Amino acid sequence: MATKWLVLPLAIACFFTAISAEESTESKEFVLTLDHSNFSDAVSKNKFIVVEFYAPWCGHCKKLAPEYEKAASVLSSHDPPIVLAKVDASEEVNKDLASEQEIKGFPTLKIFRDGGKAVQEYKGPRDADGIVAYLKKQSGPASVEIKSVEDATNFIDEKKIVVVAVFPKLSGEEFENYTTLADKLRSEYEFGHTLDAKLLPRGESSVAGPIVRLFKPFDELFIDFKDFHVDALEKFVEESSTPIVTLFNNDPSNHPFVIKFFNSPNAKAMLFMNLTGEAADSFKSKFHEIAAQYKGEGISFLLGDLEASQGAFQYFGLNEGQVPLIVIQTNDGQKYLKPNLEPDHIAPWVKEFKEGKVLPFKKSEPVPKENNEPVKVVVADTLQDMVFNSGKNVLIEFYAPWCGHCKKLAPILDEVAISYQNNADVLITKLDATANDIPNDTFDVQGYPTVFFRSASGKVVPYDGDRTKEDIIDFIEKNKDTIANQEAVKDETAKDEL
Ligand SMILES: *[C@@H]1O[C@H](CO)[C@@H](O)[C@H](O)[C@H]1NC(C)=O
Ligand SMILES: *[C@@H]1O[C@H](CO)[C@@H](O)[C@H](O)[C@H]1NC(C)=O
Ligand SMILES: *[C@@H]1O[C@H](CO)[C@@H](O)[C@H](O)[C@H]1NC(C)=O
Ligand SMILES: *[C@@H]1O[C@H](CO)[C@@H](O)[C@H](O)[C@H]1NC(C)=O
């Protein structure tokens, strides 16, 4: 059986929480367990079913489990029924199902409606109450009618994007187009409609419509739009719901915008500093000015508060001594850094970046002072010397400190390394891929652990056999070059058993 390849948790998850390993102790009853054999059946039988694709080792999944179960128990008595289910997507037998469903990270939750005719990603909260509230809304109409000031007050949450259309009558092509859009984007935004603009808290109250008014917690706070082509409406909602500068701090109501920021195809410019400190205001206004200036030019801007940014600092390999700092991440994975900024540095530096004059920066752990264990430690700064230029056959494991399968593999690799201790041609190594950039296309690391072998002559092969000492050694024996062969075949020290 082939080894299971583990999917990386979304990088953005690192921004929000440290990974916790809490186990749930509650007995599970309400969440349906599905697998490849009965998934389709369950989806086609239900008008509304939510499926969580998870992996047993994933910390965020473990955290979600008790909340999900609680929500399932509350929702089991909802009318119409809302069913919550889960699939262990790391199971070999469910792999095809997971790839059909395009599961790229754990947990991924999807909402299936009308027997699976409509599928949407779940984009709601991860706590029981939040899940219940979100799913109740999702199972109701896509756009809610606002009939009173009270309706409007309840519906238009000051901290969210809320889209409301004003219509002279609740029929006609504009109304239908709006409903189509609401159906399409309902998992991401809240949609409402009304016959009376006077009920709405912001904007011109005498309009009769049809008009769409988008309420947002940033920038101009509301914005009107009158083109009812479905595509134009969608573009309007997507564009006007993106802040000029996305704010990242401890306020969870900002997190949806942070997720949006990371999902954008743009280069990402992030300014990290202490936002409660005295210097913050001049940075904020300069940054905002620059962000507005680059709007539509392929760069998105985020302002991150130091206090909330521990995960981000770890992810990018930054430290607090460097703040205020700006880091730009491009889609090819390169990073560009300007530490210890002054407000006046931002504009010229971003300009230089745009012109391709800034050099990328590489995250590396310090080079270890001692490297005496059987499995040698490689860091980004020693990758070139130890792996590419050592002239040896190198097995390299890319691991994450929190990854359970990596921990299981560690003693096995130790044994492999010990059995090669007297063979100077073979090096067994490991690299913490969460703390070091892997600046090369040579190694495609999509999950942990990922093991590669680079032969002395430079042939790179991924290891995807079983994670046993015997299989790994067999693999090394099959793929390694005898160093002697490379230089002079007649060298008498050639000692290998093959
Ligand atoms: C689906 O099949 C799996 C494996 O046979 C089983 O454990 C699970 O209970 C089934 N789920 C339902 C809802 O029938
Ligand atoms: C409704 O949307 C369709 C498709 O985008 C478009 O062809 C039509 O003109 C729209 N109707 C109105 C009144 O905007
Ligand atoms: C940010 O600055 C404030 C005010 O100077 C200070 O009280 C706070 O400790 C700082 N926070 C961090 C994370 O350094
Ligand atoms: C990247 O990989 C190539 C082989 O494909 C190697 O020659 C080169 O030295 C590597 N560079 C770095 C920085 O690792």
UniProtKB/TrEMBL annotation:
<keyword id="KW-0677">Repeat</keyword>
<keyword id="KW-0732">Signal</keyword>
<dbReference type="InterPro" id="IPR017937">
    <property type="entry name" value="Thioredoxin_CS"/>
</dbReference>
<comment type="similarity">
    <text>Belongs to the protein disulfide isomerase family.</text>
</comment>
<feature type="domain" description="Thioredoxin">
    <location>
        <begin position="10"/>
        <end position="140"/>
    </location>
</feature>
<keyword id="KW-0413">Isomerase</keyword>
<feature type="signal peptide">
    <location>
        <begin position="1"/>
        <end position="21"/>
    </location>
</feature>
<keyword id="KW-0256">Endoplasmic reticulum</keyword>
<keyword id="KW-1015">Disulfide bond</keyword>
<dbReference type="Pfam" id="PF00085">
    <property type="entry name" value="Thioredoxin"/>
</dbReference>
<dbReference type="InterPro" id="IPR005792">
    <property type="entry name" value="Prot_disulphide_isomerase"/>
</dbReference>
<dbReference type="InterPro" id="IPR013766">
    <property type="entry name" value="Thioredoxin_domain"/>
</dbReference>
<feature type="domain" description="Thioredoxin">
    <location>
        <begin position="353"/>
        <end position="481"/>
    </location>
</feature>
<protein>
    <recommendedName>
        <fullName>Protein disulfide-isomerase</fullName>
        <ecNumber>5.3.4.1</ecNumber>
    </recommendedName>
</protein>
<dbReference type="InterPro" id="IPR005788">
    <property type="entry name" value="PDI_thioredoxin-like_dom"/>
</dbReference>
<dbReference type="InterPro" id="IPR036249">
    <property type="entry name" value="Thioredoxin-like_sf"/>
</dbReference>
<keyword id="KW-0676">Redox-active center</keyword>
<dbReference type="Pfam" id="PF13848">
    <property type="entry name" value="Thioredoxin_6"/>
</dbReference>
